[in-house]
Amino acid sequence: MSNSEKSNELQKSEYPHLEMSPETRKQEGSPAADRFRLLHKRLLDRTFFAIDMDLVLVEKKPYQLVAVIDYKQLEDKLTYAEIIAYNELVKMGVPVFVIHSRTDIVSTEPEEHRFDIYRYLNGDPWPTKPIKEVQLEVENVGWDGIEEWEKQLRKTAK
């Protein structure tokens, strides 16, 4: 069964009221939120630094933050603002992971997508080129590999 077929099936659980609805699963990004972030950067004081979090994994039973995921494309690097935020999250006990894409996920089919997953450990935002310390968790996986990794992450968090 392909990833797209799997994503169309709802997995049944003991708590069906806690499952994502088909409408939620179809939602893409918010143009309004993107515009808000853009205007925050352009219109407010130049020293009001911020980051947007790509994905925050949560559990509903028990309620908890599982982890923060930062997605990076082929050439993207962590910024100093991200390093500051991730250092603080790690101090609070929230795991942070960087998923680095090996492929262009916009112009290729999901079956072709490949990723490396790193656990963010620590960083120093102050050098001209910020320094980060990460640990490779999973190498060269597709969506099935991300799903398996996330299942284990969620299981460990409970």
Structural write-up:
The protein has five helices and five strands; from the N terminus they run αααββαβββα. It has one domain. 32% of the residues lie in helices and 27% in strands. Mean pLDDT is 87; it is low at 7-12. It has helices at residues 3-8, 22-26, 31-43, 80-91, 143-157, and strands spanning 55-60, 63-72, 96-101, 115-124, 131-141. It is an alpha+beta fold and 158 residues long. The relative contact order is 0.13. It is globular. It has a five-stranded mixed beta sheet.
In short:
This protein is of the alpha+beta class and 158 residues long. It has helices spanning 3-8, 22-26, 31-43, 80-91, 143-157; strands at residues 55-60, 63-72, 96-101, 115-124, 131-141. It has one domain.
Topology record:
Blueprint: H1 3-8, H2 22-26, H3 31-43, E1 55-60, E2 63-72, H4 80-91, E3 96-101, E4 115-124, E5 131-141, H5 143-157
Parallel strand pairs: 2-3
Antiparallel strand pairs: 1-2, 3-4, 4-5
Observed structural traits:
single chain, globular, 158 residues, alpha+beta, 5 helices
Distance between the termini: 29 Å
Gross morphology is: globular
| Fraction in beta strands | 25-35%
| Major β-sheet strand ordering | 1-2-3-4-5
> Count of DSSP E strands?
5
State the secondary-structure class.
alpha+beta
